[in-house]
Design goal:
Helices cover 11% and strands 23% of the residues. It is of the alpha+beta class.
């Protein structure tokens, strides 16, 4: 076989593969979505570039994936495989972010451009929305909970010990609930 024509698997393709394998292994394959046909191969981030895409595809589309994490069960990640969190200090009716200034430096709001909607895999579109932050940016919400990222998270489905931090910050599930270890 001519190895010159082999390309490394993209980060997006790896996440889709992880979701499919996890769903099949857990017996919930019927609940897992098929790989999204809306993501063209050229839009997937190139892992060999070392460039972070800030949870978006190479074309700038934000991404929310439901992924089996192991100890926390099925959780939501961005397009770079970084866990997404919610804060118990925020409100859901209406969706409200109380994380600003120094807080938003420690917990980065997951934002989208005006008119953008995230590409979803395993996340119900009816649960996804946005809110307008005090700085005018649009933050993605899940079941009303504003979503955040840990700036130290480099992917690989690790929570950097921040899940449950200050009994306030929790990795989020595809339904917007706090992630908990399966029983």
């Amino acid at each position: 076989m001519n190895r010159q024509h082999l390309r490394p698997i993209s980060r997006t393709a790896r996440l889709v593969l992880v979701v499919a394998v996890a769903a099949a292994a857990s017996g919930c394959a019927a609940e897992a979505a098929a790989p999204p046909s809306a993501i063209p191969a050229q839009a997937a981030p190139d892992p060999s570039s070392g460039e972070q895409m800030d949870g978006h595809t190479a074309t700038g589309e934000p991404v929310l994936y439901a992924v089996q994490s192991g100890p926390l069960g099925v959780v939501v990640t961005d397009g770079d495989g970084r866990l997404l969190y919610r804060s118990e200090a925020d409100g859901t009716a209406p969706p409200t972010s109380r994380c600003a200034d120094a807080c938003s430096a420690s917990w980065q709001p997951f934002t989208v451009g005006t008119g953008q909607q995230p590409l979803l895999l395993g996340v119900d579109p009816a649960l996804v929305g946005t809110l307008i932050r005090s700085d005018g940016t649009r933050q993605v919400t899940l079941a009303g909970w504003p979503l955040y990222r840990d700036p130290a998270d480099r992917g690989a489905l690790t929570d950097s010990g921040r899940h449950g931090e200050s009994d306030q910050w929790f990795v989020v599930t595809p339904t917007g609930d706090r992630a908990t270890a399966p029983s």
